[in-house]
Amino acid sequence: MEEGYPFSGTGSLFRFLQGLISIAVQNKGIVVFDNDAEGLATFNRCTQLNVPANMRILRLPDFPEFCDFETIDPNGRHRTNINGQGAAIECYLDLGGEPCIRWKNYNAAVDAYHGELINKELYTRNFLNQRNRDEGYDYEKIASVLDMIVKNCVLMREATLNKELGDRIENE
Question: CA angle, corner 168, sides to 165 and 170, nearest 5?
């Protein structure tokens, strides 16, 4: 997040979503949480809200590649599943080399440690500095995120059209 972004962190995003729901915002919106411990905990909290049909609450998808991922903790290096614990959005970029997650804070809400990709800024910068599609870059994981978002946009649109059709039939 760039400096000054008003809703950084999952707690702020949760409160922002609560605010949108409380004022019955009519715009369509999608909220996407990371697939890490913090994201999972807040995603779970959001699913308990009375989310209207014009909003979707999503979490980055589990990815098979994340089931056997290099991690580091005080006891050394291990290979483990980072889905739901350490797979933030940067993990969906082309990681190349030997990426590693460092375990950090314990999150009691999901009974898991929160992990963070080491050198995540480098992976982000490599992605953002692209000006054209790079044939050597692996877009598969980030494309799956975009596919998930587009699919949910389509589902929201279909629900709106079905409601409008139902209302029209009811009024005739």
Answer: 110
151: its two tokens: 């699919």
The answer to whether residue 3 is domain-embedded is: no
**Listed residue (34, 27, 73) closest to 52, CA to CA:** 27
Is residue 88 included in any domain, yes or no?
yes
Our count of domains for the chain comes to 1
Residue 1 covered by a domain:
no
Q: What are phi and psi of 88, to 5 degrees?
A: -75, 175
Q: In whole angstroms, what is the distance from residue 149 CA to residue 141 CA?
A: 13
Is 97 a residue whose pLDDT tops 60? yes
**Domain of residue 42, residue span:** 10-167
pTM for this predicted structure = 0.86
Gyration radius of the chain's alpha carbons: 19
